[in-house]
Amino acid sequence: MKNYINTILIACSVIIAGYLLASGYQNRAKVSQAISVTGSGEENFTSDLIVWRASFSKRDMVLKQAYADLNTDQKTIRKYLTSKGVKSDEIVFEAVDIQKDFNYDYDENGQLRNTIFNGYSLSQSLKIQSKNVDVVENISREVTELIDAGVELNSFAPDYYYTKLAQLKIKMIEAATKDAKNRAEKIAENAGGVLGSLKNADMGVFQITGENTQEEFSWGGNYNTSSKKKTANVTIRLKYEIK
């Protein structure tokens, strides 16, 4: 009787083990019946916000006079900018930087013999942030006109931004997702299957480069600010079940 029971137990164990192996194989097969695809979205757009910076300076042996001259230049610059269409509240003049200049006299052995005070050097920076992109862009190229007024303004290249980036990103993610799904459906169809449920979705890095430039994508995401016309790119990776 005991041997009979042992035989039954062994048989049951074999059946259960076989079932588990078969079930595991089927589940593994099901997991392998999936496809991963990458879709992309691209959009060209024009910046709607410009930030332009410039600086100017004055020198004089007397600090009070140097500051007065700098203040005169500031008034001239403000008048010039507003006459060109820049709003007064878009112009920000930063704090004045004051430096003492010296000339150094050395002997034939390279030892300092004398320090001569050479006057005060005052400089000031200004920033314009405006949605009137074309106007400010033109001003940044034409500020040499201020030379005729006795103002030496150093102009820096403008930076360009886009204030509706969040809405653009959503639109591009939608386009990239649609592109990925179309790819998956085509692959499944060619393989004789049917696209099943979505198993996983991952968004790649959001990139902004200058339009029609050779800028390379960065793993951390590129954000071009030097070009007024830009191109945004995003990728979406989807994993679908295949029936």
Description:
The protein is of the alpha+beta class. The chain folds into three domains: 1-32; 34-46 and 164-242, 2-Layer Sandwich (Translation Initiation Factor IF3), CATH 3.30.110; 50-160, Protein of unknown function (DUF541), domain 2 (Alpha-Beta Plaits), CATH 3.30.70.2970. Strands 2, 3, 4, 5, 6 and 7 form a six-stranded antiparallel sheet that branches. The protein has helices at residues 2-32, 63-83, 133-142, 165-190; strands at residues 34-46, 49-60, 91-93, 97-106, 112-130, 153-155, 159-161, 195-203, 207-210, 229-242. Strand 4 and strand 5 form a beta hairpin. The radius of gyration is 35 Å and the shape is elongated.
Please describe the structure with a list of short key phrases separated by commas or semicolons.
Translation Initiation Factor IF3, 3 domains, four-stranded antiparallel beta sheet, 10 strands, elongated
Number of helices: 4
The CATH topology of the largest domain turns out to be Alpha-Beta Plaits
According to CATH, what is the class of the largest domain? Answer: Alpha Beta
In total, the number of strands is 10
The CATH architecture of the largest domain is 2-Layer Sandwich
Which percent bin holds the helix content? 25-40%
> How large is the share of residues in beta strands?
35-45%
State the shape. Answer: elongated
The span between the termini is 50 Å
CATH superfamily of the largest domain: Protein of unknown function (DUF541), domain 2
Query: In terms of structural class, how would the helical and strand content be classed?
Result: alpha+beta
Q: From the alpha-carbon coordinates, what is the Rg to the nearest angstrom?
A: 35 Å
What average pLDDT do the residues reach? 86
Main sheet overview: 6 strands, antiparallel
Number of self-contained structural domains: 3
Low-confidence stretches: 17-22, 24-31
Order of helices and strands: HEEHEEEHEEHEEE
